[in-house]
Model the fold of this input.
Amino acid sequence: MKHNYYIFKSGRLKRKDNTVFLETIDEERKYLPIESIDSLHLFGEIDLNTKLLNYLNSYGIIINFYNYYGYYSGSYYPRKQQVSGYLLVNQVQHYLNKEERLFLAKQFIISGVFHMVRNLRHYENTKEYIETINRELSDIDEVTDIPALMGIEGRIRNVYYSAFNNILKHGFLLNKREKRPPNDPVNVLISFGNSILYSTVLGEIYKTQLDPTVSYLHEPSTRRFSLSLDLSEIFKPLIIDSLIFYTINNKILNLEDFDSKEEICLLSEEGKKKFIKEYEKKLSTTVKHRKLKRSVSYRSFIKLECYKLIKHLIDDELYKPLKAWW
Done:
């Protein structure tokens, strides 16, 4: 079984004895069996060389890099092993066709909002927020362009975030969503969790024939895999937000896991490890799939979403986004 490896300490990664060898600055030495690596997540300052990169490339292993604050900054993306010119042409055509693009963009929003409402229904005193969200969502059929759609999504998300203070306990509050930089513990967890999810979605896209740079809700641009942002809209409330509520309300994370420096709030290394541990547990949690009649993990749901999108792009089956039934 393959695993994601999260490396927080600084040091060096290299190929040694036909596997991956980690040597940290405090002289910790560890072998990472190449067959067990799904992806690498580097939070520390890690030295690499081309010998290692070529080795990882032969196994299709993505390396995700995170900055000083712990947020995703980029990936080493090996040469894709799953490619299809036919699918790429269709993927681009659906972007260029205004109606096709708008349809897919709406589906991502509809699924994401469904999971926001699903989260709120688990808690008391959220009925008013749910009603406001549903009123905003009712206008989506009338939307004729992406900017207007993004406007609805933005208003819904503001209402959704304003409900957090009715859910969170133990002194955690979200006054306003702030991204650059996040200035309180809840904002930090949202940004950190979304960064981890983004890299996970990218890894699942990589395993398919989809091109991660061609997207529909988010505008394709240079230096980002925007299709990962599209698909992440579905899973942010389903995975990340529910984890934030769980880790805070069950005291897995506490205010001592955060440090504030000059109006910037940071999640400690120990806090990151706690959150990632719960994140990996969530990804491996299984649910009985109604159509497939077998247990499927949360991580597999991400890959299945990629395959559903592929079927839509090649006119095999109309895309219907995930709406969690459990």
